[in-house]
Design a protein that fits this description.
Elements lengths: L3 H6 L7 E4 L3 E5 L7 E7 L15 H17 L6 E4 L15 E5 L8
Antiparallel strand pairs: 1-2, 2-3, 3-5, 4-5
Bound molecules: guanosine-5'-monophosphate (5GP) and zinc ion.
């Protein structure tokens, strides 16, 4: 599949990995929009965006948020952080593989 995140997960494109388990992969964004900016993605390309989330994905989405909370603690984002998922063209989604941005490491600007 021609998906940049699938290639990163498969190790075909190098990434700065933060965490990996059987369900998710977390890595630093190549174009950071904050002092700390990483992405958490499901390993399987089952969802293009949060628009496709169904009840059956509850465990996966819950797990992603648990991983985010653990990584935020590990990276000492005690001052706070923002979790963003862009969904579709108007949100500026560029990679059609569900992913959650985590931004922190200093005061963040106001949201759009
Ligand atoms: P979106 O705009 O779809 O929500 O976010 C996609 C994100 O993936 C962007 O922030 C972009 O910088 C990041 N990204 C795109 N290609 C790569 C890559 O090859 N490596 C890494 N680490 N991040 C990437
Ligand atoms: Zn993918």
């Amino acid at each position: 599949m021609d998906c940049v995140f699938c290639k990163i997960i498969a190790g075909e494109i190098p990434s700065k990995k933060l965490y990996e388990d059987d369900m998710v992969y977390a890595f630093y964004d190549i174009e950071p929009a904050a002092p700390v900016h990483f992405l958490v993605v499901p390993k399987e390309h089952v969802l293009e965006s949060c628009a496709q989330v169904q009840e059956e994905h509850a465990a996966l989405i819950g797990h992603i948020f648990h991983v985010i909370a653990q990584l935020a603690r590990q990276l000492d984002l005690a001052g706070g952080y923002r979790v963003v998922t862009n969904c579709g063209a108007d949100a500026g989604q560029t990679v059609q593989h569900l992913h959650f941005h985590v931004l922190g490491g200093g005061p963040l600007g106001a949201m759009a």
